[in-house]
């Protein structure tokens, strides 16, 4: 691939988007961007232990057809410096600071799982900053079962080690034929990028993020009625990590929210149904 074609690919294909960095205070944050510049950028916030290479390239590329996409590594995760925060509050403040340093006064946010916690907190902390929210596989502060994410996850992580499979096979997808096929396809997509990959999370960062998730699950409920912007809430019908009931709870409490539940799908419902999710998300953002 020539330099010119690589440059073109990097603006249209997540697989070739370079790792970029922005420094806020004394912390260097890693990010990637692609898609057309101008308009309101869409900031992507990822799950527990996830780095830039854990964003589904089919979803990122699909959204980047119409939107300037910015995918972030949290502090202390992947190529970002510093120590991973112990609270969602700190993560939200980091993202607000990074967005400001990048020069944006208005953004859309899409958060998956932990990223959905962070996105809600940003919308409450900086309401003028956020135009629209997409919350996937996530739930509210104090939501049902969120404090048990670790207890649910550890046995399935061990199962992944014993069966020589990525634990996301069991954590993100159902055990049906459809779920197993979707898991394989998703994990194959995450391997498509072969050069300039991000660093995996350290065990310390992984555990610190888990502490933040437990804290979120145990804290008092937030006043979600203050989030009056349009919100799209999406999940699978069998999410064992952040139980699907939390998605329904979000829609009941958010004044301007729409719910999509995918059948025979788990925590990673948007990955299993990426071909349906991308046009739905694009229509929501364009409305």
TrEMBL record:
Coiled coil: none annotated. Keywords: Hydrolase. The keyword Cell cycle does not apply. It holds the Pfam family Abhydrolase_1. GO terms for molecular function: hydrolase activity. InterPro entries: AB_hydrolase, AB_hydrolase_1, AB_hydrolase_fold. Residues 41-271 form the AB hydrolase-1 domain. The keyword Hydrolase applies. SUPFAM superfamilies: alpha/beta-Hydrolases. This is Alpha/beta hydrolase.
